């Protein structure tokens, strides 16, 4: 039929052009011109990859600033047919997807509130991020953690506060987005300051 | 809501409309065959395909060619997804998709829906992402734009038999409009931090000593066309929330612009094709008005926060943060949400399932209004033109005159076909939702209790039939029932809608174009814009009111009383 030949031509031809050739050119050029970004903004220390500058990591120790709650999970090591909580599992980004009146959600928030200090608590400290990999916390959230980190590390609060300041970015171009504190950058700076 | 927040929204919208002006002029030139800078590639397609770009097709020929191209795309994508486990470029060893999931996914990408019942970094190989999804992101978008050009030509002159050549429109739009825009935007995205690599996933040892697998891939180019083509299917499971798919507020602002600019530009291209730019501006103004109102509603609802959490001692200053990342901020989340659901894109930079009830109702309602505000690339314009015909018909009834649009008499045949098209959406959405709410196999997919559970199911069929692709993600969508019926809803929303529209175009094209007279109802002024908005709300939206009352509205009032589920 006369309609099959053009249909096959455009689909196969464009699959080659847009699905193989164009991404190959993009990958080659991007890799040559912007190798760091094209490769995932990986951070290396002593020849080892310690993470990506864009992807959040889990921190639970007292001497580190803590990131936002994360709803990512992974296969349960005890029983691979089930999943278990695995915060900041970058291999499977996920949100809680719980509705605003969900008892499961509100129970989780209540549990986090118990550890979050006096009310009012910044919302980002007790709610799970949308990606499960949020690299940032709000400046208010960071400010409430300064005393704990300073005490755990035995350094003056003033110094920690200055490092929080250094890891804080304002809105992009001065207008887009919000002020935020990059948790991995901050914790790296704390470790390197010793 | 803050002044700075509104300044962000105003800035991004203004830049989008400003960009739409030259792009609209350029698309009109492409539609005319006046753009030729990739002539050797273009003619190669014609030679191999046996295509004569100068040979016009009537509406049937045009629609058949479109269906053939889409069927071929479906077959190839289905095969790639089933076989990805044994095909190359599969560094993470993703296995072939089940036939249910492959059917749903292939339909989803071919119909420009990009509903995703799988998670990208877990279930798709690099080959599937590039040669499968990226390609269909382009081709489903070119299909929509080509159809919109054909429908526009029906209004351009009188006594037309032919609407253009599908193969030529399709090839030109892909080569001259989408490909260059995606390349430029793709490089901008890499600069902002999106990966573009074929390397394996990286393994990191975190500061606390844990192992973290960092997924990579050819992300930036695919994400560029995902927004430009109003496709919306994420490279990663959490879509534009993923730090690699939405690295910062600039990236999210560019994505907002990318997903709205072609639908806006097509209105202006329409104005040029019919020889009266004011007609295109009127359609654009109505779209823009709805986007602004919807953005304000989402912004207000989310900024108020979750009252149940405020009562527990959470500071409401940041608004409702469950399911949101910090870096974008609420104003850009609200504008992104309004444009992605108004424009039939379906990408997300926040999780709708965790929105406040009214904040989540807005995206749901925007899709239900027919995906014309501004709608998908191409589909938004031809959907809007259907509503424009209905609007002049309603106006004609009020004053007792034969309605005309752009000098073309609108008669019984066109109105019957327009109503047929407009009724597809409520039939598919409400029909499938109603059946699914009594079928145990479907109900078991619902995550949340109470009215929110109903919203999850209603949103799924709304998103599928509206060819949007966003979701209330708590729903477990990868089941045979949902994969199949959502796939059917997507096919109905795309093809059962566009075939009657093409029939209208064919019928209108043949009619003479009467000159404007003293009694002509002007279709470029504020009166017509207001009438059009009213028709969209009443004909497009009213039938969904009962379902919205049972879902988000009931949830809102139960939330105010403190009830949980």
UniProtKB/TrEMBL annotation, chain A:
How is the protein disposed in the membrane? Single-pass membrane protein
User: Per the record, where are the segments of Polar residues compositional bias?
Assistant: 70-83
Q: Which GO terms describe its molecular function?
A: ATP binding; P-type potassium transmembrane transporter activity
What transmembrane ranges does the database entry give? none
Top-level taxon of the source organism = Bacteria
**Where is the segment annotated Disordered?**
68-95
Cellular component GO terms held in the UniProt record:
plasma membrane
Give the InterPro entries listed for this entry: KdpC
Subcellular location, record wording: Cell membrane
Q: Name one Pfam family in it.
A: KdpC
Q: Which keywords accompany this UniProt record? A: ATP-binding, Cell membrane, Ion transport, Membrane, Nucleotide-binding, Potassium, Potassium transport, Transmembrane, Transmembrane helix, Transport
Q: Is this entry keyworded ATP-binding? A: yes
Instruction: Please give the chief subcellular localization of this protein.
Output: membrane
Extent of Low complexity compositional bias: 84-95
Assembly: The system is composed of three essential subunits: KdpA, KdpB and KdpC.
- What is the recorded function of this protein according to its Swiss-Prot or TrEMBL entry? Part of the high-affinity ATP-driven potassium transport (or Kdp) system, which catalyzes the hydrolysis of ATP coupled with the electrogenic transport of potassium into the cytoplasm. This subunit acts as a catalytic chaperone that increases the ATP-binding affinity of the ATP-hydrolyzing subunit KdpB by the formation of a transient KdpB/KdpC/ATP ternary complex.
Q: Which HAMAP family match?
A: KdpC
Would you identify the family this protein belongs to, as annotated?
Answer: Belongs to the KdpC family.
Q: Per its record, how is this protein called by name?
A: Potassium-transporting ATPase KdpC subunit
Organism encoding this protein: Roseomonas indoligenes
> What does UniProt list as this organism's lineage?
Bacteria, Pseudomonadati, Pseudomonadota, Alphaproteobacteria, Acetobacterales
Q: Which gene encodes it?
A: kdpC
UniProtKB/TrEMBL annotation, chain B:
User: How is this protein named in the record?
Assistant: Potassium-transporting ATPase potassium-binding subunit
Question: What topology does it adopt in the membrane?
Answer: Multi-pass membrane protein
- Record bears the keyword Transmembrane: yes
Q: Which GO terms describe its cellular component?
A: plasma membrane
Please name the gene that encodes this protein.
Answer: kdpA
Give one GO molecular function term: P-type potassium transmembrane transporter activity
Pfam families, alphabetized: KdpA
Q: Which UniProt keywords apply?
A: Cell membrane, Ion transport, Membrane, Potassium, Potassium transport, Transmembrane, Transmembrane helix, Transport
> Which segments cross the bilayer?
62-81, 130-152, 173-194, 249-270, 282-301, 328-348, 355-373, 379-399, 420-443, 486-506, 527-545
Q: Which top-rank group of organisms is this from?
A: Bacteria
Q: Which family does it belong to?
A: Belongs to the KdpA family.
InterPro entries from the UniProt entry: KdpA
Where in the cell?
Cell membrane
Q: What does this protein do?
A: Part of the high-affinity ATP-driven potassium transport (or Kdp) system, which catalyzes the hydrolysis of ATP coupled with the electrogenic transport of potassium into the cytoplasm. This subunit binds the extracellular potassium ions and delivers the ions to the membrane domain of KdpB through an intramembrane tunnel.
- UniProt subunit comment: The system is composed of three essential subunits: KdpA, KdpB and KdpC.
């Amino acid at each position: 039929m006369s309609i099959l030949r053009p249909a096959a031509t455009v689909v196969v031809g464009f699959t080659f052009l847009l699905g193989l050739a164009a991404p190959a050119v993009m990958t080659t050029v991007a890799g040559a011109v912007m190798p760091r970004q094209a490769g995932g903004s990986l951070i290396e220390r002593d020849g080892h990859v310690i993470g990506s500058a864009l992807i959040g990591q889990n921190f639970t120790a007292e001497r580190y600033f803590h990131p936002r709650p994360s709803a990512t999970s992974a296969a349960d090591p005890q029983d691979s047919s089930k999943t278990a909580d695995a915060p900041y599992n970058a291999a499977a980004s996920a949100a809680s997807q719980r509705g605003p009146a969900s008892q499961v959600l509100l129970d989780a928030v209540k549990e986090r509130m118990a550890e979050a200090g006096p009310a009012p608590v910044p919302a980002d400290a007790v709610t799970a991020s949308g990606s499960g990999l949020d690299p940032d916390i709000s400046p208010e959230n960071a400010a409430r953690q300064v005393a704990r980190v300073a005490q755990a590390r035995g350094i003056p609060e003033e110094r920690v506060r200055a490092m929080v300041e250094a890891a804080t970015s304002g809105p992009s171009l001065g207008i887009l987005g919000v002020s935020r504190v990059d948790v991995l950058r901050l914790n790296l700076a704390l470790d390197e300051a010793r | 809501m803050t002044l700075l927040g509104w300044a962000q929204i105003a800035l991004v919208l203004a830049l989008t409309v400003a960009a739409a002006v030259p792009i609209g002029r350029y698309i009109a030139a492409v539609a005319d065959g006046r753009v030729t800078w990739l002539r050797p590639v273009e003619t190669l397609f014609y030679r191999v395909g046996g295509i004569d770009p100068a040979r016009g097709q009537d509406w049937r020929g045009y629609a058949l060619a479109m269906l053939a191209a889409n069927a071929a795309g479906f077959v190839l994508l289905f095969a790639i997804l089933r076989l990805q486990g044994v095909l190359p470029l599969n560094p993470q060893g993703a296995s072939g998709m089940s036939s249910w999931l492959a059917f749903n996914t292939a339909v989803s990408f071919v119909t420009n829906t990009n509903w995703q019942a799988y998670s990208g970094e877990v279930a798709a190989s690099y080959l599937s992402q590039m040669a499968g999804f990226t390609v269909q992101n382009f081709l489903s978008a070119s299909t929509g734009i080509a159809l919109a050009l054909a429908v526009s030509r029906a209004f351009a002159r009188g006594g037309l038999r032919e609407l253009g050549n599908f193969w030529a429109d399709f090839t030109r739009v892909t080569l001259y409009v989408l490909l260059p825009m995606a390349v430029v935007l793709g490089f901008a995205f890499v600069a902002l931090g999106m990966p573009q690599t074929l390397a394996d996933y990286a393994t990191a040892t975190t500061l606390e000593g844990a192992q973290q697998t960092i997924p990579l891939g050819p992300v930036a180019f695919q994400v560029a066309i995902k927004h430009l083509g109003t496709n919306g299917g994420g490279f990663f499971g959490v879509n534009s929330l993923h730090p690699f798919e939405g690295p910062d507020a600039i990236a999210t602002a560019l994505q907002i612009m990318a997903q709205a600019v072609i639908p806006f530009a097509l209105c202006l291209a329409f104005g040029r094709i019919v020889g009266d730019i004011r007609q295109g501006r009127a359609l654009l103004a109505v779209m823009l008005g709805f986007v602004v109102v919807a953005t304000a509603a989402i912004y207000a609802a989310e900024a108020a926060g979750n009252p149940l959490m405020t009562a527990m001692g959470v500071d409401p200053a940041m608004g409702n943060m469950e399911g949101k990342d910090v870096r974008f901020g609420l104003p850009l989340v609200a504008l992104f949400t309004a444009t992605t659901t108004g424009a039939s894109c379906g990408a997300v930079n926040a999780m709708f399932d965790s929105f406040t009830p009214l904040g989540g109702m807005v995206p749901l309602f925007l899709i239900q209004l027919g995906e014309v505000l501004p709608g998908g690339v191409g589909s938004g314009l031809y959907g809007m033109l259907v509503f424009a015909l209905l609007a002049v018909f309603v106006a004609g009834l009020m004053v007792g005159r034969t309605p005309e649009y752009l000098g073309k008499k609108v008669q019984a045949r066109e109105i019957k076909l327009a109503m047929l098209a407009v009724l597809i959406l409520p039939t598919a959405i409400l029909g499938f939702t109603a059946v699914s709410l009594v079928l145990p196999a479907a109900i078991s997919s619902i995550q949340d209790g109470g009215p929110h559970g109903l919203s999850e199911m209603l949103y799924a069929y709304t998103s599928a039939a509206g060819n949007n692709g966003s979701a209330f993600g708590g729903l477990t969508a990868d089941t045979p029932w949902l994969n199949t019926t959502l796939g059917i809803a997507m096919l109905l929303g795309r093809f059962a809608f566009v075939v009657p529209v093409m029939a209208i175009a064919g019928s209108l094209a043949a009619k003479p174009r009467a000159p404007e007279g003293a009694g002509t109802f002007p279709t470029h002024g504020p009166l017509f814009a207001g009438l059009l908005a009213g028709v969209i709300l009443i004909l497009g939206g009213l039938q969904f009111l009962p379902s919205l009352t049972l879902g988000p509205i009931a949830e809102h009032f139960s939330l105010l009383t403190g009830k949980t589920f």
